[in-house]
Design a protein that fits this description.
Length: 186
């Protein structure tokens, strides 16, 4: 079974449609206060959408609640981590850190603990740093902590570091594992 975080969001709802359309068994987590209106609307644009929406197993879980995540991770083989808090308001810095960094650390720890085959993390260009000399931001852009970054950028960069931690933790045990052993991929 596949677990999707952030399934009620823009990226997550489109991903859910693609996964259930492809025939995958999917569980999506949502917060208690989540609205399903946006995801239902995404599914409503497709003729088969309403029927496919019914195939999603919804599980209430907050990224910051380990006990809820334990339940959500039961029988999961792959994880698509799409959940995030998006804001550029400096007053929301603590919320962004909790959701984007601590929440991602919790997903990473669960993935490592539950021997998840694949962990796919949805990030943001905001985590890549500043433009290079050609005015381009890409995966080769360097993050300079001394430069001014938005609170959102800082939180997404921190979340990426958690995902990289998972990939490195997987590599440290890789040499002692068989070819069929699941590993986290960043």
């Amino acid at each position: 079974m596949i677990l999707v975080t952030g399934g009620t969001g823009l990226v997550g709802s489109h991903l859910l449609y693609a996964l259930v359309k492809a025939g995958h068994s999917v569980r999506a987590i949502h917060r208690r206060e989540s609205s399903f209106d946006a995801v239902k609307k995404v599914f409503s644009y497709r003729q088969d959408g309403p029927a496919l929406y019914q195939k999603i197993e919804w599980q209430e879980a907050n990224l910051l609640d380990i006990m809820q995540l334990e339940v959500a991770f039961k029988d999961i083989l792959r994880v698509y981590h799409c959940a995030a808090c998006i804001s550029f308001d400096p007053k929301k810095y603590n919320l962004l850190r909790k959701t984007n960094i601590t929440g991602t650390a919790n997903i990473v720890n669960m993935a490592l603990t539950h021997n998840i085959d694949k962990l796919c993390y949805v990030s943001s260009i905001a985590s890549l740093g500043q433009r290079n000399s050609k005015g381009v931001i890409n995966e080769e852009s360097e993050w300079n902590p001394d430069q001014k970054h938005s609170v959102y950028s800082i939180s997404k960069y921190g979340a990426e570091m958690e995902v990289w931690r998972a990939s490195q933790a997987s590599k440290t045990v890789e040499s002692s594992l068989s070819e069929d052993t699941p590993l986290i991929v960043a």
